[in-house]
Design a protein that fits this description.
Blueprint (H helix, E strand, L loop, with lengths): L1 E5 L4 H12 L4 E4 L8 E8 L2 E8 L2 E4 L5 E6 L12 H21 L3 E3 L3 H7 L2 H10 L7 E4 L2 H10 L4 E4 L7 H4 L8 E2 L2 H5 L9 E5 L5 E8 L2 E7 L21 E3 L4 H13 L4 E8 L5 E7 L5 H7 L3 H17 L3 H5 L2
Parallel strand pairs: 1-2, 1-6, 6-7
Antiparallel strand pairs: 3-4, 4-5, 8-11, 9-10, 9-11, 12-13, 12-15, 13-14, 15-16
Helix pairs in contact: 1-10
């Protein structure tokens, strides 16, 4: 049994699920937003070994039967409609999130990209930079700080050629009704005038790296899929390609040098992951510069534009572990 943890409208997950079913795999989907209202999850400790049970409507699965979990894009737990007090709802939903995290973290089966706590740790940008540097990646001059003076020192050191970005995700849904996204921007003279505001919240500052193009590397196990993004072809995407201008931004499959590809797989593996999306810059001189690793990075648009078989690789990674489980005897599974 392969469990896909994701929201109902996740099209990339639907495509992988179809691939798995065509290959004869048993697949169940679970959306965390169904918990606790529709879904029932039990963890029982008896006879030395924990038993995990998930029941949604008429479907039930024992988690010890799972060969693999794809922790793809889960929704957020939602308290039952009968719970109307906002503060009580918030407490229940946080408790549900913590409980589900403990369940995923304690499973012994293959997980892609990894257990939630591992993914959360892998997303920490300062840790990423240290790990990437240790593996031999070139990284830009980078500063994580809430010290205005440190910001101004780096600004002068780099002759004003700095970009800024946030250290993690900002969630302001309760106030604005949507997630707040802050993309990478050049540091302006106006930012310098308000340097004291840096003290209110840490920020990431990096030396601006000139680009020939950008490379999005999707790692699935030992498979490396690199796509070149010609972000300099349009003004809109010159600083951050996530300001998508797909009609004017060519995307092509890219061949990484062997040593760079090997570093990418090692970075993902040493981060405790089985999947990761890595962003690199290819400079005009031909140097590859590391920017960041995203354990839950999107890949569907890359697959659509380049034909890189990323979905196939994900399906194969999940299937490989189901095949392994299928070869075990019931006694071996009991002691696995």
């Amino acid at each position: 049994m392969i469990l896909i943890v994701t929201a109902p409208g996740d099209e990339p997950a639907r495509e992988v699920e179809a691939l798995l079913r065509r290959r004869g795999a048993h697949v169940m989907r679970f959306d965390a937003a169904d918990f606790p209202s529709r879904a029932r999850v039990s963890v029982s400790f008896r006879a030395n070994k924990p038993r995990y049970t998930l029941r949604v409507d008429d479907q039930e699965v024992q988690f010890d039967q799972l060969s693999a979990v794809w922790y793809r894009k889960p929704g957020s737990p939602a308290a039952a409609s009968a719970i109307v007090d906002p503060e009580v709802r918030a407490v229940i939903e946080q408790d549900c999130r913590d409980f589900l995290t403990s369940v995923w973290d304690s499973l012994g089966c293959f997980m892609l990209p990894g257990a939630p706590s591992v993914m959360k740790a892998a997303q920490l940008k300062a840790s990423q930079m240290c790990r990437a540097k240790a593996l031999g990646f070139e990284v830009p001059a980078t500063l994580f700080t809430n010290d205005p003076q440190a910001f101004l020192d780096l600004y002068r050191e780099q002759s004003g050629r700095l970009i800024s970005k946030i250290t993690g995700a900002l969630a302001l849904r309760a106030r604005f009704g949507t997630e707040f996204g802050r993309l990478t921007d050049m540091v302006s003279t106006r930012d310098v005038a308000y340097a004291d505001a840096v003290a209110y919240c840490p920020i990431v500052l990096q030396a601006y790296v000139p680009k020939r193009l950008e490379v999005r590397v999707t790692v699935v196990g030992q498979h490396v899929f690199a796509a070149e993004i010609h972000s300099q072809a349009t003004h809109r995407t010159r600083i951050d390609w996530r300001r998508y201008d797909l009609a004017a931004t060519p995307h092509y499959a890219h061949t990484l040098p062997h040593d760079v590809a090997a570093r990418c797989t090692r970075l993902v593996a040493e981060s405790g992951l089985t999947f990761g999306a890595i962003d690199l810059i290819l400079t005009p001189e031909g140097r590859y510069v590391f920017l960041e690793l995203n354990p839950a990075g999107e890949y569907a648009w890359i697959e659509d534009l380049t034909g890189l078989p990323i979905s196939e690789a994900i399906a194969e990674a999940l299937l490989e572990n189901e095949k392994t489980q299928a070869t075990l005897t019931s006694e071996e599974r009991a002691h696995a």
